[in-house]
Amino acid sequence: MPGPLDRLRSGARPSLAIGLTAIGFLILIAIAVGGRLGGGGDEGGESQIGAGDDGAVVRCVRRGASFRVTRDGRASMTVTARRPVSATVSETATETGDAGSVTVTARATREAVARASVTAEAAASATVRQRGRARACGRGPDAATAMRRAVARARAGARLNADRRGAGRARGAAARRAGRRARRRASSQAQARADEQAREAQPKLEAGARRDAADAARRQARQRLAAG
């Protein structure tokens, strides 16, 4: 006949089995919840978190998209323009002596280069495409509201991520565009100034060439007259 101690041991075995089963069930729940909290690594992945202590529903998503990133840039360029200018003039001189007279026509040319340097500044903006990624969570009274808030936050975060990653390329492109614009502007202004200087130099070159031609004609006439 079983004693009191045997009856106590037999009664404890079912309670111990029930306790072990409950602990195992709690471990499985903890693993499942931990897997959900980890979230997915793929873009557009979604992890679902149940209601919190306050009863709110939480949803987490990851979003990636391509965005436009715009930056401004300035540049300064110096361009030197050159315009060759020349003048050719013919002059006639007559020298008279005992043996008669000699008439000689001589030609002279004077050349110069008109130069003008101009520094111009320009500004420009440039836009590049950059992909951004972000993960965010949203809370709401229901799953739809929480998901809508999570998607909006994730997309805003992806936009900020793209703006940060693409800023350098956009600034470089803006600086290059501003440099090309400044070079064109400086080149146009330098060419106009060089043309103006060439027009101003033309009369002086003609006057100098005329003097050179007259001197050459008189000299050659005297030499021929002396040679007989």
**How large is the share of residues in beta strands?**
35-45%
Shape: rod-shaped
Say how many strands there are: 3
Structural class: alpha+beta
Number of domains: 1
State mean pLDDT (0 to 100 scale).
82
Protein model, in words:
The chain has 228 residues and is an alpha+beta fold. The longest helix is centred in the C-terminal third of the chain and has 85 residues, at 143-227. It has one domain. It has 2 helices and 3 strands; from the N terminus they run H-E-E-E-H. The termini are far apart. The relative contact order is 0.19. The chain is rod-shaped, with a radius of gyration of 47 Å. Strands 1-2-3 form a 3-stranded antiparallel β-sheet, sandwiched between helices. It has helices at residues 4-38, 143-227; strands at 46-49, 57-97, 100-140.
